[in-house]
């Protein structure tokens, strides 16, 4: 395994160096269609949770400003991120530039009815300082009962349709990170989703693969695929030595997705990601398979994809609504 990984890193690092040289030439960040919506979005997007983790409001504003100027136009968020701070920061940062951005936020009903959803939407619009969001997604669909709750009478799915009819959201979708089977249950309802967000990285295809089970179905339906957790959510794939940043992010961006949402909490991380995104060239099918093969052992039991195998990435509000103890109440 060590020889395989060493050969893998040596081979692909050369490609990364070539990409960096290309980026310095001032190449643009590619735009891709957001499914059938008619919108064009940057291949790289800015994650909302990490925006709330930036050291200050000023740094968060600088991240958004630099991203916009570099050609990034997709901004992720959610009603519950940092108790609303993430939405507030994005709203302030986009003031005067709202028309340059595709803003996505998420509703966090976690099984509650559409009245809760619509109230959260109004709060999100206020925080984001806008009269509409471009994409409104149901957040954290990760429990086996979630599809049933979402599509129950007066459930969150009805809120998506009501908000769209009212012009407060343009497009709708859902997101989750736990198991591909739950995503497929959601899709089995044949609801008119415009977007579906899922974890996609170079380990995913081997273990409970969203890449192999959900992504083809989403693309078949013409729904925009939004990728996340390209490095494990908090860089676990890099810290544990499974992949280097440039290969991991480039792999995720090479998949048939509209946008890869990256967690960026500092200008240094932003600059690193922009370097790869400018003039982005995808890996070939042969290179993608070589990367999957090199990562297969690390991927085999899911121990690096903690969002699939542990509760670490499950929000406390969702756990409470489903009757589970909070993260703080769990044993170490």
Fold and architecture overview:
This protein is α/β, with parallel strands linked by helices and about 325 residues long. It has a single domain (about 1-320), classed as NADP-dependent oxidoreductase domain (TIM Barrel). It is about 45% helix and about 15% strand. It has 16 helices and 10 strands. It has helices spanning about 1-25, 50-55, 55-70, 85-95, 115-130, 145-150, 155-165, 180-185, 210-215, 215-220, 235-240, 245-255, 265-275, 285-300, 305-310, 315-320, and strands at about 30-35, 40, 45, 75, 100-105, 135-140, 170-175, 195-200, 225-230, 260. An 8-stranded parallel beta barrel has the order 3-4-5-6-7-8-9-10, surrounded by 4 helices. The chain has a two-stranded antiparallel ribbon with strand order 1-2. Helix 3 crosses helix 4 (about 85-95) and helix 5 crosses helix 7 (about 155-165). It is globular, with a radius of gyration of 19 Å.
List keywords for this structure.
two-stranded antiparallel ribbon; alpha/beta; 10 strands; 332 residues; TIM Barrel; eight-stranded parallel β-barrel
Gist of the model:
The chain has 332 residues and is an alpha/beta fold. Helices cover 45% and strands 13% of the residues. It contains 16 helices and 10 strands.
């Amino acid at each position: 395994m060590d020889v395989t990984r060493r050969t893998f890193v040596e081979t692909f690092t050369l490609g990364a160096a070539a990409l960096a040289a290309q980026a310095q030439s001032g190449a643009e960040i590619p735009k891709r269609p957001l499914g059938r919506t008619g919108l064009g979005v940057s291949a790289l997007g800015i994650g909302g949770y990490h925006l709330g983790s930036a050291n200050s409001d000023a740094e968060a504003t600088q991240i958004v400003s630099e991203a916009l100027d570099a050609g990034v136009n997709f901004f992720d968020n959610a009603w519950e991120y940092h108790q609303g701070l993430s939405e507030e920061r994005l709203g302030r940062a986009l003031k005067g530039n709202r028309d340059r951005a595709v803003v996505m936020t998420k509703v966090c009903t976690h099984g509650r009815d559409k009245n809760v959803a619509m109230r959260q939407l109004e709060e999100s619009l206020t925080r984001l300082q806008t009269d509409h969001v471009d994409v409104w997604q149901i957040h954290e669909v990760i429990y086996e009962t979630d599809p049933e709750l979402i599509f129950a009478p007066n459930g969150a799915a009805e809120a998506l349709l009501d908000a769209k009819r009212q012009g407060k959201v343009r497009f709708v979708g859902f997101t989750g990170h736990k198991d591909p089977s739950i995503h497929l249950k959601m899709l089995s309802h044949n609801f008119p989703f415009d977007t579906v967000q899922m974890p996609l990285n170079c380990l995913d295809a081997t273990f409970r693969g969203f890449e192999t089970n959900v992504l083809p179905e989403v693309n078949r339906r013409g729904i925009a695929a939004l990728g996340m957790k390209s490095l494990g959510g908090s860089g676990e794939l890099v810290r544990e030595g499974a992949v280097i940043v440039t290969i991991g992010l480039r792999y995720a961006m090479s998949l048939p997705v509209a946008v890869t949402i990256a967690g960026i909490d500092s200008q240094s991380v932003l600059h690193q990601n922009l370097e790869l995104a400018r003039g982005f060239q995808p890996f070939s099918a042969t290179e993608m398979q070589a990367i999957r093969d090199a990562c297969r052992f690390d991927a085999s039991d899911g121990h690096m994809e903690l969002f699939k195998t542990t509760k670490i990435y499950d929000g406390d509000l969702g756990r409470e609504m489903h009757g589970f103890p909070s993260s703080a109440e769990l044993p170490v």
